[in-house]
């Protein structure tokens, strides 16, 4: 494994365990048995490491999502994609814990994140539209109702790890519990047929 990759893996481990604010470049270097000068050859600042890990997270999400078959029933696709996303986010949980602090301090990451959110919103609204066409989700009763449903799902999706760390202890329990909390948001909007399919997914 190349030195740069070793630094990223150790940084991810330390950031996840001890928190982004608590970990220093010297601590990362010491944990790897190298000088800080050697580490600085690859990464001049802690922000450079965070930026690299952010893009690794994004790429990991894209990779995992591409493994899902778009041929499966759309409600099942939504269920599985949410679970994959939350598992991947947990592997890079320090980013989610301090997401807005990280983005506020890096204009490039902020711009990338906002663009990513626009794409994600389009994808979710398309899924809602398809569910409605298939008779699995009712039509909107309020203007912009499903835009706001996506917004609620997105807020929870970006912030669930802090709640999980506070209220739950076991890693597996955290992901499965908050995946259900997130996915159940859609349940009241499903038709009888949609609710039947939803119940089958839980078996």
Defining key terms:
203 residues, mainly alpha, 0% strand
SS element count, helices: 11
Helix/strand class: mainly alpha
Low-confidence stretches: none
Give the CA-based shape.
Answer: elongated
Task: Indicate the topology.
Layout: H1 3-18, H2 25-32, H3 36-42, H4 46-66, H5 74-91, H6 93-97, H7 99-104, H8 107-133, H9 145-167, H10 171-183, H11 192-201
Helix pairs in contact: 1-2, 2-3, 4-5, 5-10, 8-9, 9-10
Give a description of the structure.
The protein is an all-alpha fold and 203 residues long. The protein has 11 helices and no strands. It is elongated. The model has no long low-confidence stretch (mean pLDDT 93).
Quickly describe the structure.
This protein is mostly helical and 203 residues long. The protein is built from 11 helices and no strands.
């Amino acid at each position: 494994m190349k030195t740069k990759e070793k630094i990223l893996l150790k940084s991810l481990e330390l950031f996840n365990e001890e928190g982004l604010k608590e970990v220093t470049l010297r601590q990362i270097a010491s944990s790897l048995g190298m000088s800080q000068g050697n580490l600085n050859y690859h990464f001049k600042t802690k922000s450079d490491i965070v930026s690299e890990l952010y893009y690794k997270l994004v790429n990991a999400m894209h990779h995992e999502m591409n493994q899902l078959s778009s041929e499966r029933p759309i409600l099942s696709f939504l269920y599985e994609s949410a679970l994959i996303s939350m598992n991947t986010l947990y592997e890079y949980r320090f980013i989610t814990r301090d997401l807005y602090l990280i983005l506020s301090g890096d204009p490039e990451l902020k711009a990338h994140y906002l663009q990513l959110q626009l794409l994600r919103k389009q994808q979710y609204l398309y899924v809602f539209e398809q569910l409605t066409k298939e008779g699995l989700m009712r039509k909107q009763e309020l203007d912009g109702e499903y835009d706001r449903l996506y917004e609620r799902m997105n807020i929870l999706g970006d912030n669930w790890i802090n709640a999980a760390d506070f209220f739950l202890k076991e890693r597996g329990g955290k992901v499965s519990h908050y995946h259900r909390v997130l996915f159940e948001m859609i349940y009241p909007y499903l038709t009888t047929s949609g609710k039947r399919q939803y119940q089958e997914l839980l078996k």
